[in-house]
Every structure is written in C-alpha cells, then in structure tokens.
Amino acid sequence: MDPHLSRMLTSSRQCRCCGATFAQLLSLACDRPDMAPEDLPVQDNAAILAEPGDVLTEDFCRAGDYFFLRAVLAIPLANSGGAEFILGTWASVGQEVFEAYLDRFELREAVQCYPAGPPGAGRPHAGNERRRGIP
Questions:
Q1: Which residues contact 12 (CB under 8 A, 6 or more apart)?
Q2: Across all residues in the chain, what is the average pLDDT?
Q3: Between 20 and 30 A from 67 (CA), which of 85, 89, 100, 103?
Q4: What's the CA gap between 41 and 75, in Å, rounded?
Q5: pTM
C-alpha cells in the first residue's frame, strides 16, 4: 500500500473548525447545491412533498426552476483493503426526473437511472435548457 494512503487510513486528525478528532479517511459532502440560498433551512425529506416553493432537505432540493438530488459516490481506493472515499454532491435534474424520483422514493421502489450532472459543469441536464436560456 502507498505510504501516504496508509497514513491517511490509520492516523487521526483534528478538525480545525470544530475540534473533533477523526481516525478514519475523511469524506467530503456538500450541504446544499450552490444555487440554493444560504438561508434556506434543511428540513425533513417529507417537506419536499408538503411545502410549495423553495425547499431543501437532506436528499432533495427545489430552488426556483431548478431541481437537485443528493448523489453519494463511493470511490474504492486501490490497494486499501476495501476502503472507500465518499463524495456527497448534488445532481441537477429536470423537473420530470425529479418528480419521478420523488414518486419512487416515497414508495421505496428501485429507481431507474437517469442522466444528471453537477450544477454549472458543462451542458445542464436535458429539460433545464429552456430555464437556463441555453438553445
């Protein structure tokens, strides 16, 4: 195993912000899409169905004409004995995909795979072109 990776997997670190000590590989996650207002409170997932307008939950975000789903990527690390780097981000999807996902999420059904992309990176998801002014 790479010595640097070994050190990352076995040594402890202290967070500069909160002072907590971590003894495992850190994961990275975004708490909200960049387009979600900073003052939008995080609510329970049920709020996405119960409340109109802009809503941010742990897994869903509706901000104006934009729709986002939380995406968690587990990236296996070579020669690490099964360790994974976890990256939590938000995927921009069209309204139809968002609503289809909510329908399936509520029923706890397996969700079909849909194309999605990170907000602002390259061409947005099909269906968002008109809202973003892209021909």
A1: 21, 22, 23
A2: 77
A3: 85
A4: 29
A5: 0.65
Torsion of CA 61, 63, 64, 66, to 10 degrees: -60
The residue with greater pLDDT, 119 or 74, is: 74
> Per the domain annotation, does 19 fall within a domain?
no
Report pLDDT digits (tens) over 100-131: 888 887 655 444 555 555 554 433 444 443 33
Strand residues in 39-82 grouped as ranges (E): 42-43, 55-57, 60-63, 66-76
Q: Could you tell me the residue range of the domain that residue 103 belongs to?
A: 26-126
Q: Is residue 17 part of a domain?
A: no
Q: How far apart are CA 134 and CA 93, in angstroms?
A: 15
In-domain check, residue 96: yes
Is 104 part of any domain?
Answer: yes
